[in-house]
Amino acid sequence: MKHYSLVHLVALLVLCGGNAAGFQAPHSAHVSAKGGQTDWAYSGGSASNIHYSKLSQINKENVSRLREAWRFDTNEKGGLETTPLIVGGVLYGYTPSQKVFALDASTGKLLWTFDSQKAFGAERIASRAERSMAFWHSGSQQRILAGISHCIYAIDPANGKLIRSFGNNGRIDLRENLGRDPKLQAVSITSPGVIYRDLIIVGDAEPETLPSPPGDIRAYNVRTGKMQWIFHTIPHPGEFGYDTWPPNAWTYTGSANNWAGMAVDQERGIVYVPTGSAATDKYGADRVGDDLFSDCLLALDAETGKRIWHFQGIRHDLWDWDFPAPPSLVTVTHNGTQVPAVVQTSKQGLLFVFNRMTGEPLFPIEERKVPASDVPGEVTAATQPIPTKPAPYAEQRITEDKLTTRTPEAHQSAVKQFRTLHYEGLFTPKKVGVMSLEFPGNDGGGEWGGSTFDPETHILYVNANNIGILESLAKHTGSRGRQIYMSQCSLCHRDNLAGSPPETPSLIDIGKRLTPTQIGASIQSGKGRMPPFPNLDPAKDSYNSLISYLVAGEPKNTPDAEEAKGSRVQYDSTGDPKFLDPEGYPANATPWGTLNAINLDTGEYVWRIPFGQYPELVAQGMQDTGSENYGGSVVTAGGVLFIGATVRDKKMRAYDKDTGKLLWESSLPFSACATPAVYEVNGREYVVIAAGGQRDPDTPAGGGVYLAFALHR
Prior knowledge:
The chain is mostly beta strands. It has a domain at 477-566: Cytochrome c-like domain (Cytochrome Bc1 Complex, Chain D, domain 2, Orthogonal Bundle). It is 9% helix and 28% strand. The chain has nine helices and 41 strands. A five-stranded mixed sheet has the order 1-3-41-40-39, with no helix packed on it. Helix 4 (480-488) crosses helix 8. It is globular and about 75 Å long. It starts with a strand and ends with a strand.
């Protein structure tokens, strides 16, 4: 096993001018003699995003011989969600602080590092986890298109240098071309853009509160950085869907964005774009209507951005049930005919399967009546679409007999808590001053790892969470600082500042840990999973009022009934903590996480198993509880399904793709909330995973280690 670190190899980079001696990036993706791909040149393995490798050197019979071949430690904190790209024996990835690097994919040896902050001065950037990058080549020309904060950088894969002819001196700024002041737009990139010919098509991540920029989908020329087309997800006057919003909603509301990534049908020239909820995502009185194109799967002409068809999974979303992952483009046998299809996972645990060309569902979708809201000004949709097949891969309704039985005391506590909650099943609307249960919660069902498809068997694999959240709404009142906190911060940090550690830290007594200047820096630039809030101008009273509230709390002389003046939002979320028992475990019954295999020809399940463990519960004899999991899987022609993803047990696993039988597992230094990649170099097959520790309470600071496994020699 070889072990390299970023710190240990800085001297080598200096001596070589940033380029390892003798290193030349490949001109194109390599293919093995047997016809199997050796590279992993797309975050999802291919433009179709099916997470499949044709490699078979590692198979069901020998996978137990997997050993760590090398590891690369970035020596940074913050966490990783990255699926690296591997092209021609070179691995490209991110560090937790969003540096881009290249490694020798057979040894883990560092070849070069690109630091955007050094390239453009000392500007601060939010260190949100990046999930991958895009790779483009045409003849001998190659480019890495790397998203970092609000920009996309064009990097030469041969040496890690900026390609200065691209965009503005090597980058494009996604805050621009949105019809609003770029300096005030909170935009960041978590998932990579997709390549179609000489275009890179991109979405972005945005705040879930107002003000938020519109989530427009844009395409840029990969050679010049010039914008080629834009699709307005909040329609402008005269555009299809404009009448599903209040008049001129595009001028003041935001989001309905693609943060999850996309898939491209290269042959047909169609890009498939899932979108998320509109802002504010828990109260929608200022966006009454169905709100096209929020929570949609869009099929767009990749050359022009014109809409071909769309499907809206949730009308007027009040639950933050974004489409959470890029779709998978598959071919299935339906009614005896081969059909090109697109498969979209959802946070509700519903799986949607459509004819890729027409948008017609392969399995019937029913319109079902859902509960109405009684919140003043709110108008919920009367019905929501529910597929009749496949059956949901996450629990859809909680009853008292589906609450935890971990201990009698835990069950009794869960029942007592459950009886206080407002709950009407799926699509339960929020109430003012009364806690509601949302199940599944807005962290899945399915999450951003998405689905994996085996083209040999037509089986789709998806991992899922069975965990709920609690939430209520509160009147938008209080001091100016309190109002700003409730509109901008309470959704994550809760109305009492307690947060939901480790995902969201507590802000109680934040003034004792940080200075006002340090608090302000985090607000302006973002930190970890928190986006920047450039709309909060340090020169304005609103900014100072928020800082004062965070440091000193609510002034004693503030009238209880003081209401916001001139605010569109009249009710705020009180935050969304998980539905837990007194000891911090999910209050519903196990399994809390599952791994599912579904035959897409029939819509029937092949197998379903609990996925993930709590080590301390295993020690007590509870082996198969399942746990929260983030990141997806990879399936290979060798018959093996590889996946990390589980938060608590810090493991990488290999399963028999046909039965779900566990074949191999390995402990990791951090939890691996990322999707693996499979590749071959010099005749040897590798599986690589990024381990970063997100969401694990044992490693709140996170880390950044890449580990590659191969058969023991």
